[in-house]
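Q: Hi! First time doing this. I have a protein sequence and I read that you can turn it into a structure. Is that right? Here it is:
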Amino acid sequence: MRKKVLALLLVGILLLLAACGTSTPKDNDGQKGDNGGKDSDKVYTLKLSTSQTEQSLIAQSYMKLADRIDEATDGRLKIEVFASSQLGNDEDVIEQAIQGDAVAVNTDAARMGTYVKDMGILMMGYFADDYDEILKVTESDVFAEWEKELAEKHGIKVLAFNFYDGPRHFMTNKEINSPEDLKGLRIRTIGAEVTTESIAAMGATPIAMAWGEVYNGIQSKAIDGAEAQNTSTLPSRLYETTKYQTKTGHFQLLQGLITGVKWFEELPEDLQEILVKTAREVGAETAKDVIKASDEAEKEMEQKGLIVNKPDLQPFKTAVEAAYDKLGYTELRNKIYEQIGKTN
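A: Yes, that's right. Below is the predicted 3D structure, encoded as C-alpha coordinates:
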Protein backbone atom coordinates (compact mmCIF):
# COMPACT_ATOMS: atom_id res chain seq x y z
CA MET A 1 0.00 0.00 0.00
CA ARG A 2 2.79 2.40 0.93
CA LYS A 3 4.58 1.58 -2.36
CA LYS A 4 1.41 2.38 -4.32
CA VAL A 5 1.06 5.78 -2.57
CA LEU A 6 4.72 6.66 -3.20
CA ALA A 7 4.33 5.72 -6.85
CA LEU A 8 1.28 7.98 -7.23
CA LEU A 9 3.14 10.85 -5.55
CA LEU A 10 6.11 10.39 -7.88
CA VAL A 11 3.85 10.46 -10.95
CA GLY A 12 2.19 13.65 -9.70
CA ILE A 13 5.55 15.38 -9.16
CA LEU A 14 6.73 14.40 -12.65
CA LEU A 15 3.54 15.75 -14.23
CA LEU A 16 3.92 19.03 -12.32
CA LEU A 17 7.55 19.43 -13.43
CA ALA A 18 6.60 18.70 -17.03
CA ALA A 19 3.88 21.32 -16.96
CA CYS A 20 6.29 23.95 -15.57
CA GLY A 21 8.93 23.07 -18.13
CA THR A 22 6.67 23.58 -21.12
CA SER A 23 4.99 26.83 -20.04
CA THR A 24 6.06 30.02 -21.82
CA PRO A 25 5.62 33.64 -20.80
CA LYS A 26 2.85 35.43 -22.61
CA ASP A 27 3.22 39.05 -23.57
CA ASN A 28 -0.45 39.84 -23.14
CA ASP A 29 -0.67 38.60 -19.52
CA GLY A 30 2.00 40.99 -18.29
CA GLN A 31 4.91 38.51 -18.24
CA LYS A 32 8.06 39.39 -20.10
CA GLY A 33 8.21 37.93 -23.59
CA ASP A 34 10.09 38.58 -26.82
CA ASN A 35 9.11 42.25 -26.94
CA GLY A 36 10.35 43.18 -23.48
CA GLY A 37 7.12 42.76 -21.57
CA LYS A 38 4.97 44.89 -23.87
CA ASP A 39 1.63 43.74 -25.24
CA SER A 40 2.36 42.14 -28.62
CA ASP A 41 -1.26 42.64 -29.71
CA LYS A 42 -1.50 46.29 -28.70
CA VAL A 43 -1.79 48.91 -31.45
CA TYR A 44 0.11 52.16 -30.89
CA THR A 45 -0.91 55.37 -32.67
CA LEU A 46 1.34 58.38 -33.22
CA LYS A 47 -0.10 61.71 -34.40
CA LEU A 48 2.44 63.48 -36.62
CA SER A 49 2.18 67.25 -37.01
CA THR A 50 3.62 69.55 -39.66
CA SER A 51 2.91 73.20 -40.38
CA GLN A 52 3.20 72.56 -44.11
CA THR A 53 0.25 71.79 -46.39
CA GLU A 54 -0.76 68.32 -47.50
CA GLN A 55 0.61 69.12 -50.97
CA SER A 56 4.12 69.86 -49.69
CA LEU A 57 6.88 67.32 -50.22
CA ILE A 58 7.54 67.15 -46.49
CA ALA A 59 3.92 66.28 -45.70
CA GLN A 60 3.85 63.73 -48.52
CA SER A 61 7.04 62.16 -47.21
CA TYR A 62 5.40 61.70 -43.81
CA MET A 63 2.44 60.00 -45.47
CA LYS A 64 4.95 57.67 -47.09
CA LEU A 65 6.48 57.07 -43.66
CA ALA A 66 3.04 56.20 -42.27
CA ASP A 67 2.51 53.57 -44.97
CA ARG A 68 5.96 52.08 -44.48
CA ILE A 69 5.56 51.86 -40.71
CA ASP A 70 2.13 50.25 -41.00
CA GLU A 71 3.54 47.58 -43.31
CA ALA A 72 6.77 46.99 -41.37
CA THR A 73 4.96 46.56 -38.04
CA ASP A 74 1.98 44.55 -39.36
CA GLY A 75 -0.29 47.34 -38.21
CA ARG A 76 1.00 47.44 -34.61
CA LEU A 77 2.17 51.05 -35.03
CA LYS A 78 -0.03 53.56 -36.84
CA ILE A 79 0.99 57.08 -37.85
CA GLU A 80 -1.66 59.72 -38.56
CA VAL A 81 -0.36 62.79 -40.42
CA PHE A 82 -1.87 66.19 -39.59
CA ALA A 83 -0.78 68.92 -42.02
CA SER A 84 -1.26 72.72 -41.87
CA SER A 85 -0.76 72.86 -38.08
CA GLN A 86 -4.07 71.10 -37.39
CA LEU A 87 -2.74 69.96 -34.00
CA GLY A 88 -1.50 73.45 -33.09
CA ASN A 89 1.66 75.44 -33.75
CA ASP A 90 4.98 73.59 -33.65
CA GLU A 91 5.98 74.90 -30.24
CA ASP A 92 2.73 73.70 -28.67
CA VAL A 93 3.04 70.24 -30.21
CA ILE A 94 6.64 69.95 -29.03
CA GLU A 95 5.47 70.69 -25.49
CA GLN A 96 2.73 68.05 -25.83
CA ALA A 97 5.40 65.54 -26.88
CA ILE A 98 7.59 66.42 -23.91
CA GLN A 99 4.65 65.84 -21.58
CA GLY A 100 4.24 62.30 -22.96
CA ASP A 101 1.45 62.66 -25.51
CA ALA A 102 1.58 60.35 -28.53
CA VAL A 103 2.60 63.11 -30.92
CA ALA A 104 5.55 63.84 -33.18
CA VAL A 105 6.38 67.06 -35.00
CA ASN A 106 8.37 68.17 -38.01
CA THR A 107 10.85 70.76 -36.76
CA ASP A 108 14.14 72.48 -37.58
CA ALA A 109 17.41 73.25 -35.87
CA ALA A 110 16.40 76.82 -35.06
CA ARG A 111 13.54 75.59 -32.86
CA MET A 112 15.70 72.87 -31.31
CA GLY A 113 18.21 75.62 -30.56
CA THR A 114 15.79 76.99 -27.95
CA TYR A 115 16.44 73.78 -25.98
CA VAL A 116 20.08 73.12 -26.90
CA LYS A 117 21.59 76.47 -27.94
CA ASP A 118 24.50 75.02 -29.91
CA MET A 119 22.11 73.16 -32.20
CA GLY A 120 20.89 76.45 -33.60
CA ILE A 121 24.16 76.82 -35.51
CA LEU A 122 22.76 74.51 -38.18
CA MET A 123 20.48 77.38 -39.24
CA MET A 124 23.13 80.08 -39.25
CA GLY A 125 23.90 81.84 -42.50
CA TYR A 126 26.29 79.87 -44.75
CA PHE A 127 27.01 77.27 -42.09
CA ALA A 128 26.83 74.63 -44.84
CA ASP A 129 26.96 74.87 -48.62
CA ASP A 130 24.66 71.96 -49.45
CA TYR A 131 22.70 69.00 -48.06
CA ASP A 132 25.58 66.52 -48.14
CA GLU A 133 27.70 68.85 -46.06
CA ILE A 134 25.10 69.48 -43.39
CA LEU A 135 24.23 65.77 -43.34
CA LYS A 136 27.80 65.05 -42.23
CA VAL A 137 27.17 67.21 -39.18
CA THR A 138 24.21 65.01 -38.14
CA GLU A 139 26.57 62.02 -38.20
CA SER A 140 29.23 63.72 -36.06
CA ASP A 141 30.08 63.30 -32.39
CA VAL A 142 28.89 66.80 -31.57
CA PHE A 143 25.43 66.09 -32.99
CA ALA A 144 25.24 62.91 -30.93
CA GLU A 145 25.93 65.06 -27.85
CA TRP A 146 23.05 67.38 -28.82
CA GLU A 147 20.68 64.43 -29.22
CA LYS A 148 21.68 63.12 -25.81
CA GLU A 149 21.11 66.51 -24.19
CA LEU A 150 17.70 66.89 -25.86
CA ALA A 151 16.66 63.49 -24.48
CA GLU A 152 18.14 63.64 -20.99
CA LYS A 153 17.50 67.30 -20.12
CA HIS A 154 14.39 68.12 -22.16
CA GLY A 155 12.59 64.84 -22.85
CA ILE A 156 12.87 65.18 -26.64
CA LYS A 157 13.62 62.10 -28.73
CA VAL A 158 15.08 62.69 -32.20
CA LEU A 159 13.68 60.09 -34.58
CA ALA A 160 15.45 61.48 -37.64
CA PHE A 161 17.15 64.74 -38.55
CA ASN A 162 17.99 64.16 -42.20
CA PHE A 163 14.83 65.54 -43.82
CA TYR A 164 15.58 68.47 -46.14
CA ASP A 165 13.55 71.25 -47.74
CA GLY A 166 16.24 72.90 -49.80
CA PRO A 167 18.38 76.08 -49.78
CA ARG A 168 16.69 79.41 -49.06
CA HIS A 169 16.91 82.46 -51.35
CA PHE A 170 15.70 86.07 -51.35
CA MET A 171 12.45 86.95 -53.14
CA THR A 172 12.20 90.72 -53.75
CA ASN A 173 11.10 93.38 -56.21
CA LYS A 174 14.55 94.94 -56.15
CA GLU A 175 17.54 93.37 -57.87
CA ILE A 176 20.03 92.16 -55.24
CA ASN A 177 23.69 91.80 -56.16
CA SER A 178 25.39 92.49 -52.83
CA PRO A 179 24.62 92.98 -49.12
CA GLU A 180 24.49 96.72 -49.82
CA ASP A 181 21.37 96.15 -51.94
CA LEU A 182 19.58 94.55 -48.98
CA LYS A 183 19.93 97.61 -46.76
CA GLY A 184 16.58 99.06 -45.79
CA LEU A 185 14.60 96.09 -47.09
CA ARG A 186 12.14 94.46 -44.70
CA ILE A 187 12.54 90.74 -45.29
CA ARG A 188 10.34 88.07 -43.77
CA THR A 189 12.33 85.26 -42.16
CA ILE A 190 11.96 82.56 -39.51
CA GLY A 191 11.49 84.18 -36.11
CA ALA A 192 14.54 82.64 -34.44
CA GLU A 193 17.65 84.46 -33.25
CA VAL A 194 20.02 82.51 -35.53
CA THR A 195 18.03 83.43 -38.63
CA THR A 196 17.16 87.02 -37.75
CA GLU A 197 20.76 87.83 -36.81
CA SER A 198 22.04 86.21 -40.01
CA ILE A 199 19.63 88.22 -42.16
CA ALA A 200 20.45 91.42 -40.30
CA ALA A 201 24.18 90.83 -40.75
CA MET A 202 23.62 90.51 -44.49
CA GLY A 203 22.05 93.99 -44.50
CA ALA A 204 18.27 93.47 -44.44
CA THR A 205 15.76 94.19 -41.68
CA PRO A 206 14.39 90.82 -40.51
CA ILE A 207 10.63 90.60 -40.01
CA ALA A 208 8.88 87.69 -38.28
CA MET A 209 5.57 86.92 -39.98
CA ALA A 210 3.42 83.83 -40.42
CA TRP A 211 4.15 82.21 -43.78
CA GLY A 212 0.48 82.35 -44.75
CA GLU A 213 0.60 86.15 -44.50
CA VAL A 214 3.68 86.68 -46.68
CA TYR A 215 1.92 86.93 -50.06
CA ASN A 216 -0.42 89.68 -48.85
CA GLY A 217 2.40 91.26 -46.86
CA ILE A 218 4.47 91.79 -50.00
CA GLN A 219 1.44 92.83 -52.02
CA SER A 220 0.46 95.47 -49.45
CA LYS A 221 4.10 96.55 -49.02
CA ALA A 222 4.07 95.70 -45.32
CA ILE A 223 7.29 93.85 -46.17
CA ASP A 224 9.64 94.18 -49.12
CA GLY A 225 10.22 90.50 -49.65
CA ALA A 226 10.95 87.18 -48.08
CA GLU A 227 13.59 84.51 -47.93
CA ALA A 228 12.50 80.91 -48.45
CA GLN A 229 13.06 77.66 -50.31
CA ASN A 230 11.67 76.96 -53.80
CA THR A 231 9.43 74.16 -52.55
CA SER A 232 7.51 76.82 -50.61
CA THR A 233 7.76 79.89 -52.86
CA LEU A 234 6.31 78.09 -55.89
CA PRO A 235 3.14 76.69 -54.25
CA SER A 236 2.71 79.97 -52.34
CA ARG A 237 2.90 81.81 -55.70
CA LEU A 238 5.37 84.42 -54.45
CA TYR A 239 6.55 84.82 -58.04
CA GLU A 240 3.31 86.80 -58.56
CA THR A 241 4.23 89.45 -55.99
CA THR A 242 8.02 89.58 -56.50
CA LYS A 243 10.12 90.21 -59.59
CA TYR A 244 13.48 88.75 -58.55
CA GLN A 245 14.85 85.67 -56.87
CA THR A 246 18.41 86.13 -55.65
CA LYS A 247 20.08 82.72 -55.35
CA THR A 248 22.07 83.19 -52.19
CA GLY A 249 21.37 79.78 -50.61
CA HIS A 250 22.17 81.34 -47.25
CA PHE A 251 20.28 78.73 -45.17
CA GLN A 252 20.22 74.99 -45.80
CA LEU A 253 16.80 74.02 -44.43
CA LEU A 254 17.53 70.77 -42.63
CA GLN A 255 14.49 69.38 -40.83
CA GLY A 256 13.88 66.71 -38.26
CA LEU A 257 11.16 64.52 -36.80
CA ILE A 258 10.99 64.50 -33.02
CA THR A 259 8.74 62.98 -30.38
CA GLY A 260 8.77 62.71 -26.60
CA VAL A 261 11.06 60.38 -24.68
CA LYS A 262 8.17 59.33 -22.41
CA TRP A 263 6.00 58.07 -25.25
CA PHE A 264 8.92 56.56 -27.17
CA GLU A 265 10.02 54.47 -24.20
CA GLU A 266 6.51 53.02 -23.90
CA LEU A 267 6.94 51.38 -27.30
CA PRO A 268 8.20 47.79 -27.52
CA GLU A 269 11.86 47.71 -28.48
CA ASP A 270 11.18 46.25 -31.92
CA LEU A 271 8.79 49.12 -32.74
CA GLN A 272 11.33 51.67 -31.49
CA GLU A 273 13.96 50.27 -33.86
CA ILE A 274 11.58 50.13 -36.83
CA LEU A 275 10.35 53.70 -36.25
CA VAL A 276 13.84 55.24 -36.07
CA LYS A 277 15.25 53.17 -38.95
CA THR A 278 12.30 53.85 -41.26
CA ALA A 279 12.14 57.57 -40.42
CA ARG A 280 15.80 57.97 -41.38
CA GLU A 281 15.34 56.00 -44.59
CA VAL A 282 12.39 58.17 -45.63
CA GLY A 283 14.30 61.32 -44.64
CA ALA A 284 17.15 60.42 -46.99
CA GLU A 285 14.74 59.63 -49.82
CA THR A 286 12.88 62.90 -49.28
CA ALA A 287 16.11 64.91 -49.50
CA LYS A 288 16.77 63.55 -52.99
CA ASP A 289 13.21 64.34 -54.05
CA VAL A 290 13.46 67.89 -52.67
CA ILE A 291 16.73 68.66 -54.47
CA LYS A 292 15.15 67.61 -57.77
CA ALA A 293 11.88 69.42 -57.05
CA SER A 294 13.72 72.61 -56.07
CA ASP A 295 15.43 72.80 -59.46
CA GLU A 296 12.15 72.11 -61.25
CA ALA A 297 10.37 74.78 -59.21
CA GLU A 298 12.99 77.36 -60.16
CA LYS A 299 12.49 76.62 -63.87
CA GLU A 300 8.72 76.83 -63.52
CA MET A 301 8.89 80.19 -61.74
CA GLU A 302 11.23 81.50 -64.44
CA GLN A 303 8.72 80.46 -67.06
CA LYS A 304 6.10 82.45 -65.15
CA GLY A 305 8.25 85.60 -65.35
CA LEU A 306 10.49 85.47 -62.27
CA ILE A 307 14.03 86.75 -62.88
CA VAL A 308 16.59 84.48 -61.21
CA ASN A 309 19.73 86.34 -60.22
CA LYS A 310 22.99 84.58 -59.30
CA PRO A 311 25.28 87.01 -57.45
CA ASP A 312 28.81 86.50 -56.14
CA LEU A 313 28.23 84.83 -52.77
CA GLN A 314 31.49 85.81 -51.08
CA PRO A 315 30.34 89.29 -49.95
CA PHE A 316 27.27 87.71 -48.31
CA LYS A 317 29.41 85.08 -46.58
CA THR A 318 31.79 87.76 -45.33
CA ALA A 319 28.93 89.90 -44.03
CA VAL A 320 27.34 87.07 -42.03
CA GLU A 321 30.54 86.52 -40.02
CA ALA A 322 29.39 89.29 -37.69
CA ALA A 323 26.41 87.16 -36.63
CA TYR A 324 28.67 84.24 -35.65
CA ASP A 325 30.73 86.56 -33.46
CA LYS A 326 27.65 88.19 -31.93
CA LEU A 327 26.00 84.89 -30.99
CA GLY A 328 29.22 83.20 -29.88
CA TYR A 329 29.19 80.50 -32.56
CA THR A 330 32.60 81.05 -34.17
CA GLU A 331 34.53 78.62 -31.97
CA LEU A 332 31.77 76.00 -32.19
CA ARG A 333 31.74 76.26 -35.98
CA ASN A 334 35.48 75.63 -36.10
CA LYS A 335 35.07 72.57 -33.88
CA ILE A 336 32.34 71.13 -36.08
CA TYR A 337 34.23 71.86 -39.29
CA GLU A 338 37.22 69.99 -37.87
CA GLN A 339 35.03 66.95 -37.17
CA ILE A 340 33.53 66.85 -40.68
CA GLY A 341 36.73 67.81 -42.51
CA LYS A 342 35.56 71.19 -43.81
CA THR A 343 37.68 74.31 -44.10
CA ASN A 344 36.34 77.86 -43.75
